[in-house]
Amino acid sequence: MIPETVARLRTECGLPVDPSRRGPVPLNRFFEELSTPRVAHRAIPTLTLGKVEAHLRSEGVEVADLGEPNLRVDGLLFRLGGAAWAYVSDDERNPLPRRRFTAAHELGHAVLHGKVMDRVAIDETIEPNSKDPIEREANRFAVELLMPAEVCRARAEELRAEYRACPRGVLIYRLAAELLVSAEALRYRLDELGVGDD
Amino acid sequence: MTDSSGITQFLRKYRASAVGVTPPRPELPTPGEPDPVAGPDLSAEVDITDWKPIPLPEAPAKPDETPTRFVDGSHAGQSVLCVRSPQGYPIAIRLAEVGAVALELTGRRFTRAFKAVERVVGFVADPFPWEEVEAFATALANHPGLRLRVVPARMPEPGAANPFDYGAMQTQAQNRCQQEMLRLEALALASAPAVPTLIDGQLGGRINTRDATDRPLLVGLVKAPTPPRMPDTGFNTLLDLGPGQRSPYFHDPRPGDVPLASWFLRLASGSHAAPNWGTVRVDVPWKHLERHSGIDARKGFVGRLSRWLIDARCRADSYSRMPVSLDPIVRAEDGLKPLFTPFPVLANRLYRAAGLFRRDEV
Known about the structure:
The structure holds two protein chains of two kinds.
Chain A: H1 2-13, H2 27-33, E1 38-45, H3 49-58, E2 75-80, E3 83-90, H4 96-112, E4 120-123, H5 133-146, H6 149-163, H7 168-179, H8 183-193
Parallel strand pairs in A: 1-3
Antiparallel strand pairs in A: 2-3, 2-4
Helix pairs in contact in A: 1-5, 4-5, 7-8
Chain B: H1 5-13, E1 54-55, E2 69-84, E3 90-106, E4 109-124, H2 130-142, E5 149-153, H3 166-190, E6 197-200, H4 209-214, E7 218-222, H5 232-240, E8 245-246, E9 250-252, E10 260-266, E11 279-285, H6 286-290, H7 295-311, H8 327-336, H9 343-354
Parallel strand pairs in B: 2-6, 4-5, 6-7
Antiparallel strand pairs in B: 1-8, 2-3, 3-4, 7-11, 9-10, 10-11
């Protein structure tokens, strides 16, 4: 279901997968192109619930108490009518690839869970093996969006065609750099796709 | 006439040898016992307290005990731009070409069996907004004259370096580009798993334990080795090594990486060579050593391989790293360098794409 949702989103946003083009998936363009809901993203140093509330108020949004103001969170999605705000923590425990993953995860909440979630989805930490089905779906959305299967397979085939080998360890680091995702996330993705030689 | 006997007496007594300028070598760890859990077992061949240089046998190596494929990597690059992050950190942007090559020896002929060259841009990306790095990386990757792959480096560990230190940022970018070279070497290794191979550098990080174990022969030659922590007898042995002598081998379990059998080998000394110059470390997967049962068989293998390495050493005086190099590796290096774009050409393409026509304005 989620791969189909991501494929539909790509069509709606006019951003199809094109393995002949190099570089990361243009996640920011998805935020820009998505119209329902419209999602703005924002990185805030050492994100806390208090900082989210302050930012929402500065945007003119009436916001009730979100919770303990000093609670640190990795990401958060706040939804109001046809608009949403995706927040990502910008701190040393969230390097750039992780911040992108969190942003895609929050976008996943916005796309997938509009009808089932409350106004706010708080992600204290984003666990790859979360037991919460909602969180697992948002993770799956981020994986499908940021690490397209077509690109993973195409890069593996390129390596094999040119060098007669495609060691997974090499593919992980090359593709993680190209797609601006973490090597750990990509390792999971290649394992599940069965791409690359063990 | 002055009496120089006081000079000679002292110098003779303490084994003086003339030394000249030699490249810097890694700093030695403090003498002591290695970590009993993760550290190497230095007494695998000879008890560490009895270590002394071992002369090599004259026996030639057996046919399946010598490498016929030689892998070398190269990394040519420098910082070409400095940007200031939103926090004000000076971030070095390093432009580099990295490559790897493999030469195969057939009879008396070397042929190039593998080549890979790539252009990369490394910089500490964490301080920047992800959407801007995303757009920058896409533009560099798809620019027809550049085709540069961005390799994002991490911020230095908190407390390890001042983020306003430009040098620290340069180091992070350089190390990240170097990793890309190691990946290409790993690719060169993986492309011919059934051929006995020697790689210029350490085996660690380039191959997993299973692949290393399955190969017929795999040798790493480390030109600038950092010895393990060991007692004085170990360091004395390294300093006493003469050309054509080796240290006892030791077992380095390397948790999480390929367990190794390693030893130090003095390839050459040369005129005015410093006492720590000319010694390399030889690594083979421990499992390869275990194919030889019994200590004598293992000593025989290590001795014959070392003899082969001595015979294959570089003899070109004009080559600055001659005393720590093998002739096939120098040939591989010579075969790789011409594949690189002259660096000023590459840098100017980037400056042009960046709008830095006179290098000092955007």
